[in-house]
Amino acid sequence: xxxxxxxxxxxxxxxxxxxxxxxxxxxxxxxxxxxxxxxxxxxxxxxxxxxxxxxxxxxxxxxxxxxxxxxxxxxxxxxxxxxxxxxxxxxxxxxxxxxxxxxxxxxxxxxxxxxxxxxxxxxxxxxxxxxxxxxxxxxxxxxxxxxxxxxxxxxxxxxxxxxxxxxxxxxxxxxxxxxxxxxxxxxxxxxxxxxxxxxxxxxxxxxxxxxxxxxxxxxxxxxxxxxxxxxxxxxxxxxxxxxxxxxxxxxxxxxxxxxxxxxxxxxxxxxxxxxxxxxxxxxxxxxxxxxxxxxxxxxxxxxxxxxxxxxxxxxxxxxxxxxxxxxxxxxxxxxxxxxxxxxxxxxxxxxxxxxxxxxxxxxxxxxxxxxxxxxxxxxxxxxxxxxxxxxxxxxxxxxxxxxxxxxxxxxxxxxxxxxxxxxxxxxxxxxxxxxxxxxx
Length: 440
Ligand code: PLP
Description:
There is one protein chain. The strands form three sheets. The chain has a seven-stranded mixed sheet, with helices on both faces. A four-stranded mixed sheet has the order 1-2-3-13. A four-stranded antiparallel sheet has the order 11-12-15-14. The mean pLDDT is 96. The two termini are 36 Å apart. 40% of the residues lie in helices and 16% in strands. A hairpin with a 2-residue loop joins β1 and β2. By secondary structure, the protein is an alpha/beta fold.
């Protein structure tokens, strides 16, 4: 770290709002490349966070960097409505070709949260219904609208409760399934009961504009619902003329081994929010729906100054090229399966590891207290810190911050997975020694 950086780093809490400066781990970094971060002290870190599921093509992929440079030579700002440019149209056409059926019309914005805002506004506007149903544990962003449907942690909503126009349904909980029952059937039956209770006692279905759900719980703990559960959500929406919104901000662009989780689960929503991996780190997102739906949302009901920035669109086009040319969907599936195999072996050797679950390269590793099987957030944090000391960066999630997110770039190799798992196991072992769970 050069002296001016170090001096400013030490004053981080004065320069930045605590909500930015107090997060974990605030690694001082001067460069990123491929699957690596380069620390200010010269250390090379293997990044298994992808900058929170963004750098799916790896950090600063040369093709993406080239597209950004070339883009900046001609257009840097595309004030929405004032000018029109080819990259935004090209991107809409290209994305239309990879989205689930009928999702082919785009409102481009800058962040996941904005894409969610757009989705909620669109659903309310076209249905003329005012209520929204979301699922407990989901995270959709931190603006007041997105927060109103987010329940991954109550601290996010403290003093910021929504205005009462949202209702909650429980997310699928296969863990609660009694041993003699089928988990998918159990989750579907629970959903039907919960929906009946909601519509009988709290809100009539005719007043509900949309249901919004993350197809896989991200921030809420990397929980994968049974496919049948999501299909039942779709069926319930169809029955009552309720629009279904998928928040694919985190699950999109190859993370699950398909372009989108909607394809992994074979469930097509009416509206989708996409962001994160779309442009390999440039700020870009989109609210996506059919032409028929979008055409009912007239000019001026929604707008943006920066959304669909031309350089971000160029980066997104290059991102799509890289994912296709380098077969990253396939690599996501293959490396995901390889990592899960390795993690199953590691789990068999360490009692602090609870459930390991994943689809593609979206993998969650639960840390538990082996005596009680209760979630162990402190233990998870210690393992995260020990891994970082040994040069590998993982991220966290879960209600009790008890789940390690393993989300490497989709370009990750077998050797890099091996390295990440070796370090992870070393960190787990060291934590077990510190906790007197093992003696050697
Ligand atoms: N939705 C999901 C599923 C997310 O994971 C996130 C961010 O982590 C968001 C929405 C909000 O996206 P952003 O932070 O880009 O506003």
